[in-house]
Records
---
Amino acid sequence: MADSVKIGVSGTGFIAKGLISLLASTHDIEVISILTRRPVETVDGIQERHALTNDRDTFLKNVDLIVECSGDVVYGSEVIDHAFKMNLPVVTMNSELQVTTGSYFAKRGFITEAEGDQPGCLAALHENAVAMGFKPLVYGNIKGFMNLNPSLEDMTYWSKAKGISLPMVTSFTDGTKVQIEQALVANGLHAGILADGLTGETVENIEIGGLSLAEKTEAYGKPMSDFVVCRQGPPGVFITARHEGNQKEALSYLKLGEGPYYTLSTSFHLCHLEIIKTIRRVVDGKGILLNNTAHPSVSVKAVAKRDLVAGEKISQGIGSFAVRGEACSIEDNPDHLPIGLLSQAVIEKPVKAGETLTFSNVSIPESFALNAWKDIKKDTRPVFS
């Protein structure tokens, strides 16, 4: 492996373990370090035990790039800061981090989200669509089911059934994850959102959903990022677009419909299996696939699921039973508290169910991530005027 690319993987959860296992069978990429917060001896499911470390300096030594997939905004931001100090490129599968502190890093160095989760898959589909002459109007995510306020009992059951963490399955179910993903897509692909919280229409198929969203989007004169709830839909993404050229007859013959809107879709997202494509993209010098950009217009605010009382503590916002996330305009929500920063927080003033948490009614500990957000806010401007 003398000519292999040496990478470090930050995280030892589902995504990290899957990626490490996949890369063990490649000849051009070698995992030489794995950063974990757990005691090394307690980490299971990883054969490369010699690569495990709790020390960031050891983790970054001799690597060519890192993949940050810890799923943690505060911790992951500190790791990336250390990597940037060593001028290392960073690949993330951490949309939560991207929409919270990613813009701070986008101004400082090379950071890109990977293919595998819906944002990266939409960015790849965008590249293909534009290369074929399409003009995207809608960047769509597909959800099969959503419950804005699921019960602890149900989430505990599904956490055990699916083998993923309770916060993770809760953030999927209550819509927080899709709101985060589509906020990243809006910023990274220079789109907007139709409304705070997105529209999330329930549809019979994605073509119907794409048509409905495209018609709404045309009134705004710019592309929009959104999602549909489609019980029979594939676990993928779609783009609804016009076509730039005189291809109406050809597109009809090719079974894409009569226009003027055409929906292109990817019927899967394969998480860690697709990260390797982005690693190779970076190594080949092909540039950023997707990041939150230096000047975001969309964030994800924390919204109370129930009445919150003064003195109440929230250990983690994403995937909690106290709050959920909603994509929002930064300009229209200047004091909102990004849900990615909601860690070890204390409610200072009562918050009613459905209200937005703000910096004036919640206190959170000082952190690198908090300071990064403050820096982003100082330099935030709308993408569209």
---
Amino acid sequence: MSMQLLSVASEIYPLIKTGGLADVTGALPGALADHGMAVRTLAPGYPSLMSRLGRAKSVRRYDSLFGAPASVLAAKVGELDLLVLDAPEFFNREGGPYGDPTGTDWNDNWRRFAALSRVGADIAAEGVKGWRPQLVHAHDWQAAMTAAYMRFGPAHAVPKVVTIHNLAFQGRFGADVFAGLGLPPEAWGVDGVEYYGGIGYLKAGLVSADAITTVSPTYAEEIRSPAQGMGLDGLINGRADRLHGILNGVDTTIWDPTADGLIARHFSARSLAGRTANRRALEKHFGLDQDNAPLFIIVSRLTWQKGMDLVAQAIDHLVGLGGKLAVLGAGDHPLEGAFLAAADRHRGRVGAHIGYDEPLSHLMQAGGDAILIPSRFEPCGLTQLYALRYGCVPVVARAGGLADTVIDANEAAVGAGAATGVVFPPADPLALHGAIARTIRLHGDRAQWQAMQRAGMRADFSWSHSATRYAALFRSLVQGAA
């Protein structure tokens, strides 16, 4: 008999995605199935998701969920077993999951994601149509209140796990929303949902969870420090016995250079020749010179956290050393402008595509020589894992999951054939300059470069290892609650 789990998340690939959260919630259920665990995912009924449902069955209704009618629909999309919160007043909107088409957050996000969390707790307590979860797994601040609603409600005994995908995003709101949350008075306090005089959704989830996970071992240690704890390091240190760093994995059915339908030509670690066709297609897309100069790529949110300001300042240096750069991403408008200006300034050597484009991201990994990821902090990072799988050498800051997954091309690692990338100190412009120069030198030695590519491609970052750890944690919690 499979263990029954409920995952609560604001994004799930391939139905709705703004970042790595969706990749995790989309891939983990399949990986856990191999461990005898059946996952149903509760997600908001955004238009993009509702349009993919096909046949769906109503399994729960609300005449008034935070003042709006709503229902829970059960459906399957591919291998995903979904429970969808169909609440048009909250989720049937144009724009992204969290904000309007201009990128401005909606002012009722506190209510939208409290509704998602409340429904998760209700399902934990009462089930739907004869099905009830044995454990609830909530992801990031948008779902973290599920654990708080469970703790202060009838589902308090059901094991609850909260995963931090990025501690910088905490879901903080004013104290005035507490009256609308439907929580008992005792939930207000430092041991409840109160956070520096307001409400903290992620904080409420972390203090209520039976276990806390992060998406890499190094990040689990980093967030215990004041520098990386984002104001929650005291709480996290106080619950360190419940903290687990479990590295994210890659869905190898989607990211597979031997079978990827989104790239120009397939290739493998044994035969890298196909990468040339992908490189030429990539150069053509970005209007870059078709030559053999080292081609760096960026696939990222263009933000301070990702260190994109450092890259913008280093572009002239990169081009001056003979490199080229292709950029895919969106984010802070000044940074978008800086990359567009660089593309105009260095025509044929720099190209920029502002926006998000999943097919293009596959081609970039398949055709780029090296990917720049100079993050100031990085909970896990999936982009470098995709790069490793596609023979695109990661050039990364020594932070979080980047430090856990990339082996620096120092003399010993190169000599042992273990090097998979270039690692440098985070938030250091001179270190980034040095890393770019070192990457270009390494690229000049064809045999050495291909050895790095092959070492990265042969590394196993599939979900199998990570799912084993999640399964062991979930099983221990369920057995402990029995």
---
Amino acid sequence: MVIYNVTSNMAQSLEKEWLEWTREHIAQVLGTGLFMDARLTRVMVEEQDGSSTFSIQYKASSREALELYYEKHAPALRQEAVKKFGDRVLSFRTELDMIDEYRVTGNMN
């Protein structure tokens, strides 16, 4: 499995608009059929400039699925973000190779 991570930073005043748009964007990315699920998270760090940082993690079943996403879908979807937010949102992308995954089941108390 491969995790495609997109980290985005913006002025706090843009947060609400970006979150609304991002929820639709995530649905579009998942709609490609190339990812199994996605997680939207807030990066828990206090930026000195008061900005907000978020991370979206998309889980792909294989490197090939991610490459297909890059080839067929990423350019248009990224362009939508640029058109909407321009340089008001700074994003960078990383790829993570899933080695192991662990879950806790049952009562944790």
---
Amino acid sequence: MAVQEQVYGFFIPSMTLIGIGASKQIPEKIRDLGGSKPLLVTDKGVVAVGICKQVTDLLDAASMPYVIYDETVPNPTDKNVHDGVEIFRKNGCDSLITLGGGSSHDCGKGIALIVSNGGKIHDYEGVDKASKPLMPYLAVNTTAGTASEMTRFAVITDTSRHVKMAIADWRITPGIAIDDPVLMVGMPPALTAATGMDALTHAVEAFVSTIATPMTDACAVESIKLVFKYLRKAVANGQDLVAREGMCFAQYLGGMAFNNASLGYVHAMAHQLGGFYNLPHGECNALLLPHVEQFNLIANVEKFAEMATIMGEDTTGMSPRKAAEVAIDAIRQLSADVGIPATLVELGKRYGKEVKAEDIPTMTANAQKDICKFTNPRNATDDEIAAIYAGAL
């Protein structure tokens, strides 16, 4: 905590519904927010597996008109956002429902920013650039990882610069967030693993953030506990509703932590991998997490030692430094258990991409400009960031 004048904020949606059957309240809650004709922002995958129909059936039963925009892509782009704005305006929509994981929510936040404030999405890169409140906005989550359904953050790819634009603005926090594990049972193991490790990254980075508070620590601690308790089970058996619900709470608590304590170099660096190669955000985070935290360890040995105990490791009789190393090892083991690739080269091959050492200087320079870096517990030079990328390669 600060040793000089410092005011801490705490941002969450006005209402959150978590649990089996929570999605049944979607029509009622969009009306409570003042909406009558929402734009439903989602992606082709959510449509293909039938989750979108589950939601539109609810809207149809409630006689609520809606328009679907399902062109969101992983690592949503400025074009996604501007196309969605055109559809919103053309069809006379007055509210927003985002349905999916982080991509759909981030795209929807971008659409809402422009509809409500004007301009282009590029105008909002940075912190608190909006001046007007958003339209009624309800976010329905279908993954357990990004927590974008409840945060004030959005990340949009600038297709001209091949850079992920980080947007942090308290006005884009959804009015209501819904997490229903029933909507998550069809999530495949690889996506369950990637999003679950994303949730862990949020909690870990927030826990050692330079602006962590007792409130964010409480959220981060419980999030880490729940990820280590339930992620392996959710990956092993997607129909396990107890594990799915456990991961709903884990990712939401991780969101509460980083939404207010922010993040660090894992995200600053992962954003570059996503923007440069269009690699999945969760897996990039998972792969970089142990590398970055090994670098960060000396900045807060005590918290890393505490983390090992939170993860369920027995550190009896160990020095704080040894216990801290155990926490890093536990992260590596969990990542391996749920099938995250061990290297960036391997990750690239999984998605038909070639991660090249020659791109590291450009990614390093962009990572140093990312807003997530500012709360990392240890300052890093360009050479140190480049070395972390190279070590993960």
